[in-house]
Specification:
Distance between the termini: 80 Å
Structural class: alpha/beta
CATH topology of the largest domain: Rossmann fold
Number of strands: 19
């Protein structure tokens, strides 16, 4: 007697069915059809179609499991379950090497991290609205006079990306209509919409830590432009099943078999195969038996399954290739920086170590490491969390402050949720008052900064502040911070700084400025990172330098935390190379090491007291650092970046401008912006005009 199991995926836009034969460990038939508002009728139609396709009777089906948006409407189903479990089970059968699944459905998007055996380890969903979903794409396509497939074609032919700042369907519709009225090209708008969705979905995935290889499932994975955009945002080569729409239905059928004790895996030849051939065109159901299915990497594989270089996203590799295709392969580790750091932090927490978050380079990581704790940078670079923070904070506040607070408010940062202590550095008034609100989420240790860098009494106060932090960390961890443990931590951080200084000198000589910015971790002292730094240096020695025609830019100003790299991206996309970064996320904290002689706490205090932050007055140290960088890197021009409402850097920008004119005669461009993508076209125009003025 034939024993089959059936999986139904009743999605909001399409409905799918997969019939599984546990005895042969194969998919007997699969069906995809457009959905209707009546999910009960959809379920009945799917059942009729799958029985007709497989030429079997309903009595041959031992168990039916339904999933998806309308799963509760399948009255004949034996069980309902979530899409999370089904997509995990489906991908685990098709591509057991995958560790992260991204599913963009009609109404929501999901990121799922898998453990060995396809078990769900963690997940995140965006189900508050249609942003980042297939519905968003449909609305955008309609406004542009096409369908979702046509939207992909428009985007692929775009000359540029017109940024769409709103991710709300209602507001984005008005914004796109306005862009069309102002003469924006349809293809450029389509490319901007797709990148905006990809960026949002990638941010969702980063919350739980992306572990490669990464699979992309759901109907939106058939959109070639979205596959390319999401791959770039995640910096991963995506694994795409030949018909990604069927992944959830297959998983439901496999879970049904597992529930009744039948074999719940595909045979080896079918693991490399697909559960449905390329989707048929035209109306009506798509019914494909497994016998007719072709390999994902075969000649008939759909274009969505292939990557930009023409190779198949499903082919097996020992190490998935970065979508950025670095000339220096060792940089791939930092494409997955957040995932690596989160895995490290969770393991440390499980081992009993404390997690300490900080918002500024003034907090000595040496103290945290010497206490046996894990130091984590908590600076926010997310536009979405900056917007969320406006529920409590003024809209006109610095975006870095808003974003950092928004991560706590939205519980969007797993690092902050893991934190046992937050160090609050008093670098500006906005941060000081924000920290008072942040204290409602986590225990705080306020670190008061003196503001006169040449004042010895100010240094003594700073030394006493660090001594207080030392005691607070000892109380937190129960470990004594001895001088020897401090010296050990000093040696570790000096090694890390030395390696990163050398990497910084590779901009234009094997690395881009953006790659230099990315070659760091939010957690310091991870052994695998130190090894990766050494590998980067070794591999870059053989890389070809940039063409001498590319303008050389020195960036100065505010830090660029992860997610807030839009200005450096614009500069390098315009044809220049950012050869040096004076910012706090660049060379500023790396130029001076901690002395390994004398009293270790005083040596640490001296190094950090010398940081030339704009909160210091007078801040001659920053001007001296800029002089040194100009002499070493020989830039053709300066770009000074200021986040809106960062008053200290905004005012100091005039001091820097006068110094550059008097001392160096170099042209400078001041950019004041926030995290919003809405001004990218304007910034791109300004940067391109500035580069055209440089004397090459």
């Amino acid at each position: 007697m034939t024993e089959l199991t059936l999986g139904l995926d009743l999605g909001s836009r399409a409905v799918k069915a997969a019939l599984f034969d546990p005895g042969r460990r194969r998919v007997a038939a699969a069906v995809v059809r457009d959905g209707t508002p009546d999910k009960a009728a959809d379920a009945d139609a799917l059942l009729r179609d799958i029985l007709a396709t497989a030429e079997c009777a309903q009595s041959d089906i031992r168990r039916i499991v339904a999933t998806g948006y309308g799963r509760g409407q399948a009255a004949f189903a034996d069980e309902v379950t979530t899409e999370i479990s089904c997509h995990a089970a489906g991908i685990a059968a098709l591509h057991p090497e995958v560790r992260t699944v991204i599913d963009i459905g009609g109404q929501d998007s999901k990121a799922i991290v898998l453990a060995d055996g396809g078990r769900v380890r963690d997940f995140a969903m965006n189900d508050r609205c249609a942003a980042g979903s297939g519905r968003f794409l449909e609305v955008a396509a309609r406004i542009l006079g096409t369908d979702v497939e046509g939207l992909s074609g428009l985007a692929e032919g775009a000359a540029a990306e017109s940024e769409v700042s709103s991710m709300c369907v209602v507001f984005a519709e008005s914004e796109v209509i306005g862009m069309l009225a102002r003469g924006f090209r349809r293809g450029d708008i389509a490319a901007g919409i797709i990148r905006s969705i990809a960026r949002r979905v990638a941010g969702l995935a980063e919350r739980i830590g992306v572990r490669p290889p990464v699979a992309f499932t759901g109907g939106v994975a058939l959109n070639r432009a979205m596959v390319a955009a999401l791959g770039r945002e995640l910096r991963e080569r995506l694994v795409i099943p030949a018909d990604p729409r069927l992944t959830g239905a297959l998983g439901a059928a496999l879970l049904a078999a597992r529930k009744i004790g039948l074999p719940a895996g595909l045979s080896d030849p079918e693991i490399a195969a697909v559960i449905g051939a390329p989707p048929c065109s035209g109306a009506g159901p798509t019914a494909v038996s497994q016998d007719a299915a072709s390999s994902c990497c075969g000649e008939s594989a759909p274009a969505a399954c292939r990557t930009e270089d023409g190779s198949c996203g499903g082919e097996s590799e020992s190490e998935p290739r970065s979508a950025y295709l670095h000339r220096v392969r060792a940089l791939d580790r930092f494409d997955r920086m957040f995932g690596n750091a989160l895995e490290y932090a969770r393991a440390a927490k499980a081992a009993g170590r404390k997690i300490v978050s900080m918002f500024c380079e003034f907090t000595p990581r040496e103290l945290v490491l010497a206490a046996g704790a894990v130091p984590v940078s908590a600076c926010g670079g997310s536009y979405e969390t900056a917007l969320a923070a406006e529920r409590d904070l003024p809209a006109g506040l610095c975006p870095l402050i808003k974003s950092s607070y928004g991560f706590a408010l939205e519980k969007a940062s797993p690092f902050f949720e893991l934190s046992d202590l937050v160090v609050a550095e008093t670098t500006c008034d906005g941060k000081k008052k924000m920290f008072e609100l942040l204290g409602g989420f986590k225990p705080m240790a306020v670190l008061e900064l003196p503001q006169k860098p040449d004042d010895e009494s100010g240094f003594r106060h700073w030394l006493s502040e660090l001594a207080g932090l030392r005691r607070r960390l000892e109380d937190l961890t129960g470990a004594e911070i001895t001088d020897e443990r401090l010296r050990e931590a000093i040696r570790l951080m000096n090694r890390e700084r030395a390696l990163r200084r050398k990497i910084a000198r590779l901009a234009g000589r094997g690395l881009t400025g953006r790659e230099v910015l990315a070659a760091k971790n939010v957690i310091s002292g991870i052994p695998e990172d130190l090894k990766a730094y050494e590998d980067i240096l070794a591999e870059a020695a053989a890389a070809e330098p940039d063409l001498p025609t590319r303008p050389r830019i020195l960036m100065t100003g505010v830090p660029m935390p992860y997610g807030a790299e839009k200005v450096i991206d614009i500069i390098e996309e315009a044809g220049a190379t950012v050869v040096a970064q004076e910012n706090c996320t660049g060379l500023k904290p790396l130029t001076e090491d901690v002395s390994e002689e004398g009293d270790p706490l005083e040596a640490i205090a001296r190094k950090y007291f010398h940081l030339p932050c704009s909160c210091m007055t007078p801040n001659t140290g920053r001007l001296n650092l800029v002089d040194d960088l100009i002499r070493e890197f020989k830039p053709d021009g300066i770009v000074d970046l200021v986040w809106q409402s960062c008053l200290t850097y905004d005012v100091e920008s005039e001091v820097l401008k006068r110094h550059l004119e008097r001392r160096h005669g170099l042209p400078a461009l001041k950019i004041v912006t926030d995290y919003s993508p809405s001004d990218v076209p304007q910034l791109r125009l300004r940067v391109e005009a500035f580069l055209s003025m440089l004397d090459r």
